[in-house]
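Hello Y.,

Per our agreement to keep a running log of every chain we model this quarter, I'm adding this entry. I've kept the format consistent with earlier entries: sequence first, then predicted structure.
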Amino acid sequence: MEIFYFVVFGGLAAIVAGLELSKSNKDRINTSSAFNSFKNNYLLVYSLMMAGDWLQGPYVYYLYSTYGFGKGEIGQLFIAGFGSSMLFGTIVGSLADKQGRKRASITYCITYILSCITKHSPQYKVLMVGRVLGGIATSLLFSAFESWLVAEHNKRGFEQQWLSLTFSKAIFLGNGLVAIIAGLFGNFLVDSLALGPVAPFDAAACFLAIGMAVIISSWSENYGDPSENKDLLTQFKNAASAIASDEKIALLGAIQSLFEGSMYTFVFLWTPALSPNEEDIPHGFIFATFMLASMLGSSIASRLLAHSSPKVESYMQIVFVISSAALMLPVVTSFLVAPSGVKGGSISFSGCIQLMGFCTFEACVGIFWPSIMKMRSQYIPEEARSTIMNFFRIPLNIFVCLVLYNVDAFPMTVMFGMCSVFLFVASILQRRLMNVAETHKSRSQEWSAEKEMTSEADPLNP
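Predicted structure for the entry above:
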């Protein structure tokens, strides 16, 4: 493997270590021992859940190909997963507000374990059932756990700023360190122990089972709106009404869909972008490098969120512009760098430039996750939190299905250019969100001041 990969990985590792070790008291949030115990419990569960997810990711396509399925059939399986997340996942995820977030988290574990078990069968129909179960589980993973955390954090009376600390640590561990370890562990199971491509799925099921045991034994139940008189359709109507009536929620949903849609498209495109002529690239090592870049981003986010200024609505505008520029690099290099006609070999010069840009984008992803979680905790009403969060994923899943279905219809530069435009639009919407939030805050302050003046002027008038 070329020294270039080690230089990039080592450089990122040094920066992450430097950032973490150089944190001063100003960059840290003083918390209570009760909160630390609560936070560590959630981080343990979240890390186990993400380990179960990350172990599967690199081997899904590979497993299907070993069963003899072609690119078209595998594409249909992937579309089924995202389609299931959009249809069934939205319904199941919304039930978390009414039936309980702890119960929904346990349902995630059971559903994903069943999905892992289906991977033992080479039958296409069984694998399709597994993809449907996996799609439902994905919706629960990205809604139920966060909804439980926010509600439980507020129920226990912890300071609002401490929530940002849990978010940033969860991304640093779950989307960074755990992802790297899971990738290496999966590689050890498949290559070193020669247990076959289904082994990571069995390991994932074990981690999910351990996490479920921790949830059952240590989590208390919380709800969004447990009232008996509201059926699922009413929940959907209330969530849609909240999105339509509050511009902040609608903007937040659009921003999330634009960014995550670009992110999932990038997941499909980075491999052919770095090896257009079938260059020999170390996929596992590059994946680990991306996760390290994501850890760098979450480390930066933890510093930013520890301070009252700059506000999350402000700095995220810059993050979206940088991520837009990073995904525009493949388009720029296609015009400025002459393509190589030689098949095979090592990564090209344009590939090296793109890899640096992709690492920058992954760092933006690391900043995005805790920051969007922070904004969701501020703007989404508690009684419909899971329902609204799953509503946000509907346009995302539609977009990803369309990309998967038409992945061969457009040149790669067009796909990257489209993602870059989406991210730039996200930065514009983020600015609009900041302006709307500031206007709403100033009006609330004026109303409160006016109310106080009225009560002082006429204390007998209730």
